[in-house]
Specification:
13 helices, alpha+beta, 18 strands, 347 residues, Nucleotidyltransferase, domain 5, 4 domains
Length: 347
């Protein structure tokens, strides 16, 4: 009996998933991060309307904006939650089976811990759970992203002291104050990396009548985007389509322009942080003044974001040791701390 149980536990390897709007990361117990792929699925519908998956992840992202009418490159998550149940299930199934095949335990179902936005509704929770169960999970636990980010950043969340986390992802910005393994205050702001890309698209359309896709906007954000002035000005050549004449068009865009069009997004993030500080109990506020704000998530890596927040809040601002992976590492850490997971998992 013991041997059978031990064998079952060996094969039913547990997984942690950071199911992000932009990217999905999968953490395998005792192996670390084994998948890091864009949250994109390329599908084709047959004559009966059934979905056929053509590509998932990086390969599918390369197809965005380039597919014929018969093929769709879909991002099944919007603002941090599932917007297309069927496609999300297919994407999760692909990633889970990829890990299982790689590890050689295809016949066994894993337990899965998934990080979700703190503002998630009951309907959205159910959609995430059902997608994971349908994709092959044995059991599904959900934990809030700011809690996962704090754990992944190595913050002492179980102690009776305040920890302030700002996790800027693709779909949401999570702002939270944590203490004693609980969230004292949190807000989930649907202003993050995707909204930055959208702002760039709209700016170029309105000012230059230049139509560009989301991939081009993301490249501009990553290469010359910033939240605070740079020491050296930058510019980048942008290729798109003229909205008036319909012809291909090329122009130079500088970092000051991109910073201007991102202003609404980072102003919203600053406002959410100020509201959180106002709502924080005085005793915990004293801890935060000393310990500062910890940043996580890919959106936090926008050039000068830490400088901007330091100037606007007057607080120390630090990055998690690994901002991009803080959420999935914190989620993965729960695989070995089932008692803590039981206390922080969402109902």
């Amino acid at each position: 009996m013991f041997g059978r149980k031990k064998l079952s536990n060996w094969f039913a390897e547990d997984l942690a998933i950071d199911l992000g709007t932009a990217n999905t990361l999968v953490f395998l117990r005792e192996a670390g991060i084994v998948i890091r792929e864009p949250s994109v699925v390329a599908v084709k519908r047959d004559q009966r309307g059934a979905l056929k998956v053509l590509a998932v992840g990086r390969e599918a992202k390369e197809m965005v904006g380039k597919t014929p009418d018969t093929i769709m490159a879909i991002r099944p998550l919007k603002d941090g939650v599932i917007s297309d149940f069927d496609v999300a299930e297919q994407m999760l199934r692909h990633f889970i089976q990829h890990v299982q095949q790689r590890q050689g335990f295809l016949r066994f179902k894993p337990r899965i811990v998934i990080a979700v936005p703190s503002g998630i509704t009951q309907v959205e929770k159910r959609a995430v759970r059902e997608s994971a169960l349908s994709a092959g999970a044995r059991e599904v636990f959900l934990i809030e992203e700011p809690m996962a980010a704090a754990i992944g950043a190595g913050l002492p969340i179980a102690e009776p002291s305040g920890n302030f986390v700002v996790d800027i992802g693709g779909g949401t910005t999570e702002v939270a104050v944590l203490s004693m393994a609980g969230i004292v205050y949190s807000s989930s702001l649907r202003m993050a990396g995707d909204k930055m890309d959208e702002a760039i698209v709209q700016y170029l359309k309105q000012k230059y009548n230049l139509l560009i896709g989301e991939r081009t906007a993301e490249e501009l954000k990553l290469n010359i985007g910033s939240a605070a002035p740079r020491s050296q000005p930058l510019q980048l050549e942008v290729k798109g389509r003229d909205q008036v004449g319909g012809n291909p068009k090329v122009l130079l865009v500088n970092d000051e322009e991109i910073r201007f069009c991102l202003k609404e997004v980072y102003d919203s993030i600053v406002h959410a942080i100020r509201v959180a500080l106002e709502q924080t109990p005085p005793e915990l506020a004293a801890d935060i003044i000393e310990k500062g704000i910890v940043l996580a998530g890919g959106g936090s890596l926008l050039h000068g974001m830490d400088v901007l927040l330091r100037e606007r809040t007057g607080l120390p601002v630090f990055y998690a040791e690994d901002p991009l992976d803080a959420v999935v590492k914190g989620t993965g850490a729960m695989l070995d701390q089932m008692e803590l997971l039981a206390s922080i998992a969402l109902d």
